[in-house]
Design a protein that fits this description.
alpha/beta; four-stranded parallel beta sheet; 17 strands; globular
């Protein structure tokens, strides 16, 4: 089998992984007890049982996957990277009290802080198998520097794909919102800055490393005008839309008091339901809400650990899936999920949903893995590129080590990955390029990242305290 040639005559190098278990997460949930993956350049060339085909040319690396499981790279659909430097605070608060406690600190963040926080947040996720992440950044203090540029530079150094949801807030305390007055933008300023980020950074091409979404923060921090115009802007520019929705009973009450309707009806009235929209949390959804999401193709970022940390409740994920709602997993910000790993959300999604009405039938290991891979790609609008191991898709994949003590007595590899302790990542690829090898980040010095993040967290704490 000859390697393909580029227009300038160069050959495409190949990487071969074999002797591994495979969970492809394709439409048929195809699995192989022992199989192979061939990567050609930045795409998957073949996936199948047994050894890789004989006679492959230009193989630059062969990986023996004995004792490992290969899956698609995990896809994180909701995060707030900046919160990495405010972990461990307000640990006994519900959402509204937690926000009020932390907004004054978050409103002092600057570009160096955000870069350090981004590398901490994203680095931790990538070490745990994430290859594509979405970050919802909505705090833009005056004089903080170019925060979008700082974040994207940090992401590029680590090497993951990103959907940067350019957030915004324009409803402060004086308008009945939660953020302090000094922590918000003007409506016009937020819209202009969002459009600038889209024009400058959004890349819609196959294999893109950067997508930008329009993302007003939430009903209790954003005006109705910003919601409406943000949706119009996103559709005019052909990008996705993201916000928080139906997270707590307090939010439900807020929407009824301020708008005279519940969150889903409010979102529909402002143009915020559709197959280019996804919302974080969606914990308090009734049957009508779920039907509206299913009818419109609106997606959900399910964040089980954060929902539990903030006592928000248990989202009706089994009912959403049964109705046909696209659902992916999210870490959420690390000030409400201090572990910062999406891998742990596979397990927590399964366990927490079994506490709900469907009990043991709520989710199983393979449904949890699908949420964290294909489901996330669906929510971010990238199923043609990522989310499953199939020929022609991008070579975003993870080689999980399952032959150690922690998984030694679990025969089924997918069960071991989801139910067992966090599995070490032997190799993780983004577009065929390593981002993790032997459980260490490939492209950055993670010990240096830890030192920088600690220093920036301390600097932020001093500034917030007025020192």
């Amino acid at each position: 089998m000859a390697a393909s040639a580029t227009p300038d005559g160069a050959v495409t190098p190949r990487l071969v992984i074999e002797n591994c278990a495979l969970a492809t997460v394709d439409a048929q949930d195809t699995e192989y007890a022992t199989g192979h993956v061939v990567v050609a350049g930045d795409v998957i060339e073949s996936v199948g049982p047994g050894k890789a085909p004989e006679g492959l040319a230009h193989v630059v690396r062969r990986v023996d996957g004995t004792g490992h499981l290969v899956t698609p790279g995990l896809v994180n659909t909701h995060h707030h990277f900046y919160q990495w430097i405010t972990r461990g605070l307000a640990t006994d608060h519900n959402l509204f009290n937690w926000l009020v406690a932390l907004y004054p600190t978050w409103a002092r963040i600057d570009a160096p802080m955000l870069k350090a926080a981004t590398q901490g947040s994203l680095g931790m996720m990538v070490k745990g198998g994430v290859t594509t992440a979405s970050d919802h950044h909505y705090v833009f203090p005056r004089g903080a520097g170019d925060l979008v540029a700082a974040e994207l530079a940090a992401v590029a150094e680590i090497g993951a794909r990103i959907t940067l949801a350019r957030g915004s807030m324009d409803r402060s305390e004086k308008d009945g919102g939660l953020p302090p007055d000094f922590a918000v933008e003007t409506t016009e300023g937020a819209l202009l800055a969002t459009e600038e980020a889209i024009d400058k950074y959004h890349d819609a091409s196959f294999g893109s490393m950067v997508h930008i979404a329009a993302a007003p923060c939430s009903p209790f921090s954003v005006s109705t005008e910003l919601m409406r115009q943000g949706a119009e802007l996103a559709r005019r520019k052909g990008v996705r839309l993201h916000t928080h929705g139906s997270e707590t009973v307090e939010e439900e009450k807020f929407c009824h008091e301020l708008f005279g309707m519940g969150p889903t009806d409010y979102f529909e009235s402002t143009g915020w339901l559709g197959d280019e929209v996804w919302m974080a949390h969606c914990v308090h959804m009734n049957d009508s809400d779920i039907a509206a999401f299913a009818r419109t193709g609106t997606g959900v970022a399910h964040c089980p650990s954060s929902n539990a940390r903030l006592a928000a409740g248990i989202a009706r994920v089994p009912d959403m899936l049964a109705a046909g709602v696209p659902v992916g997993l999210g870490v959420d910000g690390t000030a409400s999920n201090e572990s910062g790993e999406l891998h742990t959300e596979l397990r927590n999604a399964l366990l927490i949903n079994r506490l709900g009405a469907h009990r043991e039938a709520a989710l199983n290991a393979r449904k949890a893995l699908r949420l964290g891979t294909y489901g996330g790609a669906q929510v971010l609008g990238r199923t043609a590129e990522i989310g499953s191991l199939e020929a022609g898709k991008l070579a975003d994949l993870v080689l999980w080590k399952l032959d150690g003590l922690g998984h030694s007595s679990i025969a089924d590899p997918v069960t071991a990955l989801v139910f067992g302790p966090p599995a070490p990542v032997t190799l993780s690829l983004v577009g065929g390029r390593p981002v993790v090898e032997d459980n260490r980040l490939s492209n950055v010095d993670e010990d240096a990242l830890a030192r920088t993040a600690r220093a920036e967290a301390q600097r932020l704490a001093r500034i917030a305290a007025g020192d």
